[in-house]
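ok so i was messing around last nite and threw this chain in just to see what happens. nothing serious, just curious
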Amino acid sequence: METVVVDLREGMESYDELTDRSVLFGFVEEASVRETDDDVNLVIMEEKLKRSNDKFSFARKLFDEILERDFATWTTLFSYYANHGSTGTACELSKEMPEKGVVSFSVMITGYDRKGRFKEALELFRELQIQGLEPNDSTVMGVISASADLGSLDTSKWIHSYIRNKNGNRFDSRINTALIGMYFKCGSVEDGVFFFKGVKEKLVGERTTMISGITMHGFGERSVELFENMVESRVKPNAITFVGLLSGCTHAGLVKEGLMYFKRMKSEFGIEPTVEHFGCVVDFLGRAGLIAQEVDFVNNMPLKAI
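result:
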């Protein structure tokens, strides 16, 4: 079997007739389409694609020329539309699909969430349940994100309860992190803290989200305590951790501590400051009225951070 890789970002050159082939669409993870042995020109394209609309048209043209369409074929095209901004087209395509699986639902839920259509994402999740399909981790991550962005605490608690009933309390770090962030985004510090405390293995994701969440609600001094506990637990912080920590110092007016943590980023943890970190320092210096120090700091910032 010969395999042709189709990268829709760059287009592709002309290909000779191929039979018994697998076509892998660019941008779609592990999605493949099986062809029959019929003598069919699957793709002939001489000019490289330059515009996104052309790419969508090309993807549909490629799909229409496949004689035998199976579940993977439909899901591949559906995923391409949903993952690259054309959720409306993906929604229409879903109505044509002879069958929808959990992958199709997951892709569409994520697509709706990215486009800010949170209620529609949650409605799809309910439809998935009605059809008796079991959500996978991607589905769960998508629906947690949609609920968090919608800011509905009741819905978020219901989703948490649903996945807990399905999996017990055995969540991986990604889901733990998403749930903590979900509660903070919905305005419930109490629920976020309670869930965090119940996590047995608190990795960098959980701890970073906790620091950011606490900071979001104005508890800057508490974010410092959480960071020190993180270091004591030998969990290495990352660049995002320091954004949350320095923001906490800004909200709490902790100038001395903020400058100290900014220096420790690189000296102790080997993390290069980004524009977000420099911005936090400028912010807390300005709020403290330390204008001369703020100006001096800005003047000594590396060009790439300005």
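not much to say yet. The longest strand covers residues 2-6.
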